[in-house]
Amino acid sequence: PHPCKEWKHFAAVIDGVLASGAKPMVTFAKFSPPFYHPDSLRRFVARSREIVWSCLEQWGGEEVRDWYWCVWNEPNNPD
């Protein structure tokens, strides 16, 4: 599901992963062209920020900090 538009469905998937005892891996890969344009980057960052913030509100920082996060193809990149 699209996490911003269908949060209820996205949260159900995350709850299923957590119920299995696993930690989710959330990947931010949808980056629309033109890739060089600052507005594209701003939209990507805003969408990513909304998802992370919503995860923090729903499951709390103690839980979310142990999840795996991937930006494009760089899992857990410190940047």
Plain-language structure description:
The chain has 79 residues and is α+β, with helices and mostly antiparallel strands. Helix content is 49%, strand content 13%. The protein contains three helices and three strands, in the order H-E-H-H-E-E. The protein has helices spanning 7-19, 38-59, 61-64, and strands spanning 25-28, 68-71, 74-75. It has a three-stranded mixed sheet with strand order 1-2-3, with no helix packed on it. A hairpin with a 2-residue loop joins strand 2 and strand 3 (74-75). It is globular, with a radius of gyration of 13 Å. The two termini are 26 Å apart. The mean pLDDT is 88.
In total, how many beta strands?
3
Mind describing the biggest β-sheet? 3 strands, mixed
SSE arrangement, N to C: HEHHEE
Summing up helix and strand content along with how strands pair, one would put the structural category as alpha+beta
Rg is 13 Å
**Biggest sheet strand line-up:** 1-2-3
Helix content percent band: 40-55%
Mean pLDDT: 88
Gross morphology is: globular
Short description:
With 79 residues, this protein is an alpha+beta fold. Helices cover 49% and strands 13% of the residues. It has a three-stranded mixed sheet, with no helix packed on it.
Salient structural properties:
3 strands, three-stranded mixed beta sheet, 79 residues, alpha+beta
Architecture blueprint of SSEs:
Blueprint: H1 7-19, E1 25-28, H2 38-59, H3 61-64, E2 68-71, E3 74-75
